[in-house]
Amino acid sequence: MDIIIRHEEEEDYLQVENLIREAFYNIYKPGCEEHLIAHRLRQSEAFVPELDLLVTLDDEIIGQILYTRARVEDEDGHNHTVLCFGPVSVHPRHQKRGVGRKLIETSMDLAWALGYKGIVLYGSPLYYHQFGFKDASAFGITTEEGENFEAFMAVELKPGALDGVHGRFYPDPAFTVTPEDVVEFERSRAFPDLAQD
What's the domain of life for this entry (predicted)? Predict the structure, then answer.
């Protein structure tokens, strides 16, 4: 499969939101909210456009990843900048072919080159452990509420890069949406019907 990785452009936004919606629809809950999250993250001051990447195959967008800056605040009130990525999605027709892996590995290398130290996220341990992610407690990082669990993970972009970074993790507020927000967003866009029988 001959794929191309490139940066997302504004004219791609609706097509990418459709892709995200198809990738996540009815996976974790009825419908999905990830396409709205992506829409909001692009408008956030924490958005990192240099890490907003697409995968194309024969000029069709089949995968995407986007990043935002987040912070880890230690007990002395010092903030440490880390990254958070997501949503990351691959069109259902192209899943399990290495597209997501290529996006994640390429973007992680680019993130290090841009000077970032590490990434903190919520996700599937079974999937993300292959990229070096481990329980965030290994770095002394907790959720905003001071909790740890298996799906809350972090990775250093180079060994030792997160030395001295510990505390509570605060992602961008755009990750929090309500069902009402999703309904309003769906009404504002011409999304195709993905209702399942």
Answer: Bacteria
